[in-house]
């Protein structure tokens, strides 16, 4: 029997609740989604809990699960963000999420350095590869005022506090980093990181980018604040272990970071904006191209989650229609024996404006997959499907089984 090929389309934060603004429909029920409904009508549907019912997950953890891993393999946000911006991590590295901030020598004036957009690449270069004692610092800019920091050396620990004073604490001093346990590793990490923060301030204070910014009346990006320390631990490379190849197409660094740590090919493009104006035709085209040389391709869209956070149910319905459009570009060009799956990493109900622990609707559809009686893709209809209610791990491994890579139990 021929091995199948699989495309998994992920609408971030898709799941929702009945919303008064939409006549008590969910955004997915309200939106017009002919392609998603077509797949639901022809395939098996169900409801998926990323980890377990009622357990809320972040996009990072949601994708750890969707990319086939056990949730215990979660390495922490720092390493995921570092991998997301393309820093190569090795076992034992300590990674942090950072902001460029504005510091006047005693207090943080702005935690986001006036939401700086330009020049962070040059500023980051001034800090990258700095060495203090036996620790080397890797530093790279991310979107806007965000950046990532990696400490590499012997005897380091992620058990250190945040230097970020957290919103809304502009106008207060930054927090000295202190060890969170009694180990010499945590003490060493905190001591050296505190030295780095001061040294970075000296480097950035008179950097030409900041001299220009101040001359133009902007806030200087002259300080680094850190949070979310995580120790890099290797995530299993499932593709190598089981024998399949995988590619992930996304605009969001977090998703790309989990993909890279998983050993999958991560594909990004400047037209992937992380919002409703993202280039869905290009996403579809790249997904089909990647499917030619890979067994499984994940294609991710962020806008659905963004609109959930914005408490914008009508906007979320528009984002869902863009997701439908993307799937519509893919369907006519699929190879024979292809399977298309629809899912999400978690729910982001508009009325809450945050992630929730509710399940998300899922579909698997294509050659060899039984249809159930469900005709539309939404939270209510998929609750009647033949996949019933399953975990993210069960859903993804059911798909991997169609690649004929999941080892048989027993004899
Ligand atoms: Zn998400």
From TrEMBL:
Pfam families reported for this sequence: Metalloenzyme (PF01676), PhosphMutase (PF10143)
Record key words, sorted: Glycolysis, Isomerase
Segment forming the signal sequence: none
Pathway: Carbohydrate degradation
Gene3D superfamilies in UniProt: Alkaline Phosphatase, subunit A (3.40.720.10), Metalloenzyme domain (3.30.70.2130)
Domain Metalloenzyme intervals: 4-393
InterPro entries for the chain: Alkaline_phosphatase_core_sf (IPR017850), ApgAM_prokaryotes (IPR023665), Metalloenzyme (IPR006124), Pglycerate_mutase_ApgM (IPR004456), Pglycerate_mutase_ApgM_sf (IPR042253)
Role: Catalyzes the interconversion of 2-phosphoglycerate and 3-phosphoglycerate.
UniProt similarity note: Belongs to the BPG-independent phosphoglycerate mutase family. A-PGAM subfamily.
Alphabetized NCBIfam families for the sequence: apgM (TIGR00306)
Keyword Isomerase attached: yes
Region (Disordered): 159-180
Protein name per Swiss-Prot or TrEMBL: Phosphoglycerate mutase
SUPFAM superfamilies reported for this sequence: Alkaline phosphatase-like
UniProt catalytic activity: (2R)-2-phosphoglycerate = (2R)-3-phosphoglycerate
